[in-house]
Amino acid sequence: MTSAVPPPRTEAVSESRAQRSSRRSIAAALLLGAVGAALALLASRQDWAHGTASVAGGELPLTAKGSDVTGVPAALAIVGLAALVAVFAVRRAGRFLVSLLLTLSGAGIVAAALLGADDSDALDEKAATASGDAAATIGDLSHTGWPYAAAAAGVLILLAGLLALTYGRSWPAMSGRYERDGSPSPRKARRVADPERPEELWKALDRGEDPTRGT
Q1: What does the pLDDT look like over 8-62, one tens digit per residue?
Q2: Exposure check for the chain: N or C terminus, fewer CB within 10 A?
Q3: How far apart are CA 104 and CA 113, in angstroms?
Q4: How far apart are CA 215 and CA 203, in angstroms?
């Protein structure tokens, strides 16, 4: 005895799940990458370290911003943001390479931020300039939490890159509507002339034909 109930369409269900997973991974990668890039750029403009320099009149307070310590996080944030956009413009091997660049940008931001968290070279240079003594160093050195915010931004970009590497093959690409694939473009069908139209009658007369023949 056969059942009248049709079997469940597992292919359609699995395809729907794959589409949902693809959309979720795209949304997560875009959110992580955009927030990470914005946070890295913001952190680079904030104060990373404070200190004082000894000058003739006493102590001079000095501050070093993230861009004074290292320009790597801001530069890689821009590279990562560009790579995140470019992921959707390329396919296959190109998409893998761009996703890898996005991942490496995040890793580079983390490394540069952590190395700059305890850096004093930028303030030492400012102390030497302020005091006029090339051997002068900064005193009362203290650091803020912004380097670690930059490192967290790098982690977000790194996660976006890992999502692109893992799920990027299923992500849609930009429309290939304007791309040339080498195939000849289809020719438009030639419009058949209507012999009853006045202009066609005149053309027939010019050619020495009798337009009334066959009517």
Answers
A1: 555 445 557 777 778 888 999 999 999 999 999 999 999 999 888 877 767 778 8
A2: N
A3: 14
A4: 17
Q: Residue 89 is encoded by which pair of tokens?
A: 């413009």
Which tokens belong to 5? 């109930």
Q: For 116-145, what is each residue's pLDDT tens digit?
A: 998 888 888 887 877 777 666 777 888 999
CA 144 – CA 179 distance, rounded (Å): 50
159 C-beta neighbours (distance < 10 Å), count: 17
User: Which residues, in sequence order, are bridge partners of residue 64?
Assistant: 49
Bridge partner list, 139: 52
CB 119 within 8 A of CB 70: yes
**H-helix segments, the chain:** 10-44, 66-69, 72-86, 92-116, 121-131, 146-167, 198-206
Give every CB contact of residue 72 below 8 A, 6+ residues apart in sequence.
108, 109, 112
**What is the mean predicted confidence (pLDDT) over 1-10?**
53
How far apart are alpha carbons 69 and 117 in whole angstroms?
Answer: 9
Residue with tokens 């269900």: 13
